[in-house]
Amino acid sequence: MVSDLRRTVHNTARVAVAGAFLLILAGGLVTSRGAGLSVPDWPLAFGQVNPPGWWRIESVRTEHGHRILAFLVALWTAFLGLRVYRFEDRPLARRIAAAGAVLVLVQALLGGLRVLRLSVDLAMVHGLVGQLFFALLCALVVVTAPDWETYQRLPNTPRERWLSSTLVAVVVAQLTLGIFIRHIGATARPLAGTWLYYAHIAGAGLVLSVALDLHAAGSAASRRSGNVLLTGITAQIALGIASFLVTEQMTHDRQTTALEAWLPTLHVGCGAFVLGSSLTRSLHAWRESLLAPLPRRNLQRGAAR
């Protein structure tokens, strides 16, 4: 019975991850289309909860649709937190759920302040917090798995643990730089030849290098799992190149084309996937250390189930 309840919590967390990923795509599309200020007030939209005909104008549809999805994800995150606290007795899962609930509120507040204060700086912080929120939900999926305490498929070494942590750090740094480039927009164009251009290329190379080292250091089982991560990183680099080629000469005095809007947006979404996958790999590498502080009775009870 307890195992069934844990599986329900786990599945609820998986739905939250899916919703958060869609929300990242929606937020990325807002930035790609320059629609962040299409709805000039917050928390209402043109003085109403749901203004009539909001879907008829692309920029308003993009921004207001993003707000609706954000509201739904926030509600589901609250529901997830309640389920975790009701059916989960594992401290790590409870702490991550609590952090997720706090982070989704912070993210909503950042989004609102970005509109009210017309702040590009807040828009960048908003973008980064969205990525961290998604990664946190990925972590919750891992630690709410019914077999998390007894999971043995990915044996690891100290080298794997430190490489996995390093990978998470360099992915966060690379995403931060990418968010900065996206939000300063025309100011950074042309990008080629600037320090931002070379720093972003170097960051991509560093991410790939650490991921390959981690892949080589792992066991056969961890390498099979690592193939997903390497595929994501390869796709992210390809999307980055495609986004650069499409947007480098883009002018900002007209509506964006489908390619100009969606390629950078998919690049943002794939970045979130890489971050979530990296954190998942790191959690498995550090699993024994994370479980070590748990009282012995909890471990025995988990094994009995």
Describe this structure in words.
With 305 residues, the protein is mainly alpha-helical. It folds into two domains: 1-146; 153-305, Four Helix Bundle (Hemerythrin (Met), subunit A). 76% of the residues lie in helices and 0% in strands. It contains ten helices and no strands. Helix 2 (58-87) packs antiparallel against helix 3 (91-117), helix 4 runs antiparallel to helix 5 (158-184) and helix 7 packs antiparallel against helix 8. The longest helix is centred in the N-terminal third of the chain and has 31 residues, at 2-32. It is flat, with a radius of gyration of 20 Å. The N and C termini lie close together (9 Å). Mean pLDDT is 90; it is low at 299-305.
Structure characteristics:
305 residues, 0% strand, 2 domains, 10 helices, mainly alpha, Four Helix Bundle (Hemerythrin (Met), subunit A), single chain, disordered C terminus
Compact description:
The chain has 305 residues and is mainly α. It is built from 10 helices and no strands.
Stated plainly, the CATH topology of the largest domain is called Four Helix Bundle (Hemerythrin (Met), subunit A)
Largest sheet: none
Number of domains: 2
Low-confidence stretches: 299-305
> Rg from C-alpha positions?
20 Å
Architecture blueprint of SSEs:
Layout lengths: L1 H31 L25 H30 L3 H27 L2 H24 L14 H27 L10 H23 L2 H28 L10 H28 L1 H5 L4 H9 L1
